[in-house]
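Many introductory courses stop at the sequence. We go one step further.
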Amino acid sequence: MGSQPAPRIPLPGPDEMSPAQREIYDEVIAGPRGRMVGPLRAVIHSPALALRWSRLGEFLRYETSIPARQGELAILVTGRRWTSQVEWAVHARAARDAGLPKQIIDAISRLEPPRFDDRRDALVYEFARQLQQTGHVDMKTYRAVHSLWGDAGVVELAALVGYYTMVAMTLNVHEIPLPDGQLPELDAPAAGGLAVLPEAAAREDLS
C-alpha cells in the first residue's frame, strides 16, 4: 500500500479527446457508470476497442442474470486475485451498496477465509476463486451455480470473471491511478505474483 505511481500512458481529459474518443466518453458518462475512472481511460486511445469494451462491460455489470450483490462479489475476487487497486476501490464500494456484508469484503481484502451465511454468495465466491486460481471450476460448483441461474447465468458469471480479469490487467499494466485521491487498500502478496484466495471458513453445501 502507499502512494501511487504516475500512469504509464496519457489519460486525456474530455477537452483533449478526438471526436471519436469524446463520443465514447459522452456515452459512458450518460450511462449507468456515470463517470470514467477505470480501464477506459487507457483504452480510449483505441476508440474502436473502447466502444466495444464499454458496451460489453455495461452489459456484464448491469444486465445479466446474476444479482448485483453476487456480481460485485465475483468482481472483488477477481480484483483481489490481481491486486488491482482501482478495481478493488470501485467495486468494494459497489459491493457494500449492493448489500454484501463488510466482514466478507474485509476478509477477501486481507486474504482470509470469508464466512458466508448466504448460499449464493458462497457459490459465487467459490466459482470465481476456482476459476481465477485453476483456470477451471469443479462440476459440483458449476452445477450448483447452474441450478440458481440456468444456462445464461453460468455463462454470464464466467464471462464476468473473464472480463474483469481483462480490466484488472489493463489497470495494472498502465498503472491507472485511483479516483478522487484515494490511496491503495490492498497489500501485494509477499512473494509477488498473484494473490492466493483461501476457501471459505465454513463452506455452504454446494449441492
